[in-house]
Amino acid sequence: MKSRCLKYFLSAAIVVAALQGAAQQRSLLVDSLPQHLINKPSPEFVLMDADGKQVSLSDFKGKTIILDFWANWCGPCKKSFPAMQRVVNKYKNDPSVKFLFILTWESSKTPLEEAKVYLSANNFHFDLYIDPKENDSRGSNKSAALFGFRGIPQKYVIDGRGQIQFNITGFSGSDDDAVQELSLMIDYAKKQVL
């Protein structure tokens, strides 16, 4: 009887410690959120959706949008996808939130087809876009050039007024931390009104 009570007590203590740890982690994320706040106008980007239709920032006025710039060859980009799928699932019924997964910096002749195959094979359900190349000698990507980032994955959280509230470069850490961090950023951006 004593050993059963001791096991129960230890199990309860472990659960309480885990919950306290999660609460402390959330508190640290909430406390650090203002340090990462950008609050600057987003460039007026232009993308192509998977069907070849052109879209721009103004098409999403009033919505909180999450831009995720990635490439087929980018390991960290793909490593972030399980966490990103969880965040997409969390907000799938919220019409005020829109995710755009944007292929950029591709050198392949068929990046869109490769991306569709990869996403389908791995059961990721993302709205896929492509960052068109400039008609210049370098063939740089238009939106990547507008945002001026230097590494991918690159994520931006843009509020309904068109203001970049946050950006995240790279991916490391746990999926749980990434989901929690991005969710806090999205919820903050949603509160910014037109």
Task: Describe the structure in your own words.
- With 194 residues, the protein is an alpha+beta fold.
- It is 43% helix and 20% strand.
- It is built from 6 helices and 8 strands; from the N terminus they run αββββααβαβαββα.
- The chain has an 8-stranded mixed beta sheet with strand order 1-8-7-4-5-6-2-3.
- Helix 4 (111-121) links the parallel strand 5 and strand 6.
- 25% of the residues are buried.
* Strand residue percentage: 15-25%
Report on the biggest sheet: 8 strands, mixed
User: What's the total count of β strands?
Assistant: 8
**Oligomerization category of the chains in this entry:** single chain
- Mean pLDDT, as a whole number? 85
Model regions low in confidence, pLDDT < 50 over at least 5 residues: 2-26
- Broad shape: globular
Q: What separation lies between the terminal Cα atoms?
A: 63 Å
What is the N-to-C succession of helices and strands?
Answer: HEEEEHHEHEHEEH
Strand order of the largest sheet: 1-8-7-4-5-6-2-3
Helix run count:
6
Radius of gyration: 20 Å
Based on secondary structure, the structural category is alpha+beta
Amount of helix: 40-55%
